Each structure stands twice: as structure tokens, then as C-alpha cells.
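Re: the 246-residue chain
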Amino acid sequence: MKDPIAREVHKRTRRSILAGLAGAVIGISGWKWLFSQERDEGLPWPLRRVLGLNETLASACYSNSRLTPQPPAPAPGSPIRINGPLGLESPVDFTQWSLRIAGPFEGEYEKEFSLDEIRKMPRTETTTELKCIEGWTERFSYSGVKFSDFLVQLGRPDRPAYVGFETPDGEYYVSLDMDSMLHPQTLLAYEMNGKPLLIAHGAPLRLLVPVKYGIKSLKRVGTITFSDERLPDYWAERGYDWYAGL
């Protein structure tokens, strides 16, 4: 006759094995079902709905009065981590570079700005942290034109719901909500850590949006497009969160 303790251990072990097998079957079945569903912008639609819910909650909590952390500025010229070359691989003649503006603004509206013209606009300097979706954070200072001030320079009171940014070669593009673009720390930057932008960091002009993950801070801006419809976004098309808020 088996020892009562041994019998109980045997019984519990068998239950655990059966429960584990049942859980594995349910998990595998659920996984197969999930990834057999229709795709929505690169993701199975249930996952895209979850990201949509995250966006709704994040945007409801968003406020332009809340600033991101503002640590002490690094020493001028301090090196800054490079976070990807997308849109920077094609050569650009900086002497011929200009920032092109496109979008409705109550009808088709196009304009171009040289870097000298942008540098003459009201200058803003700030320090913050860039947060990457890979999990690292970089502290840096940057200088340029607040996007809200840039809109004033355009001379139009219209505020379409979305803004799109694209590199000159069209290889990288992002879209953002206008509320985030009007945040006081959102800049079109031409300097980082007290020095002009390096090619690896998006020279001659890049976008910096501290209230978003780094994937939204497009380097080497070539075109800005305004729209009342959500514009294409490189990483959202590849299954990432479109809103990408912090």
C-alpha cells in the first residue's frame, strides 16, 4: 500500500501536468487564432484594437501644460547616441536643401523655407530626454524653432488634425496629432548639445517630440504636410503603435 503522502504528491503532479497541457493547448490555439485574423496596418485586428484603446487613454490624459523631464544640460559638444539611419542614406546637398510645406490650410498651400530663414525665426533652447522603444534613454539639449512658433510664421490660423513629416528621399515618414505638435517642447531643431546637427543626427533640420517615443522624432526633415486625415507612418505600417505617446 502506497504511503498517503506519496499518493497525494502523485495526484497533484498528475493534475499539474494535465493543467499544463490544457493551458498549452489553449495558448497555442489562441495564438493561431490571433495571427489568422485579418491584418489592420500590419497587425492582426485584435492587437490593433488594443493599440487603439491605448491611444484613446493616452490622448485623454495628454496636456500641453505637462512638460517632460528637464535635466541639467550636457556639456556643449557632448556625444549623443545615434538611433538609426532611416532616411539618411541618400546624399543631400545642404546648399540646395529647403523645407517644403504642403497641405490644405483651407485649400492647397505650399511654401519653402531655407535653413537661414528658419534660423531667423524665434529661437528656443531646452533640455530633455529622448526615449527609444528599444528601452534606452538619452539626455540632451537642443535648439531650434518651436513648432507652434513655426505655425505663426506660416501666417495661417488653421489647425488641421494631423501633421506628416518626410525625409527628402521619402524613405522615412511619420505622422502625428496636432496636439502633440503644439506641445511647448516640440521643436524643429538645428542644434543639439550646443553644436549644429551632425549628419547622423539629421542635419540640417530634424523634428524632436519629447512627448513621443524616438521613432516619431524624424531626422532630416524634407517635407511637412498638413491634413485633416491621418497620414502614412513608417512604423505604424509595420505593426507599431501609431500614437507612440509617453
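The CA atoms of residues 91 and 169 lie 9 Å apart.
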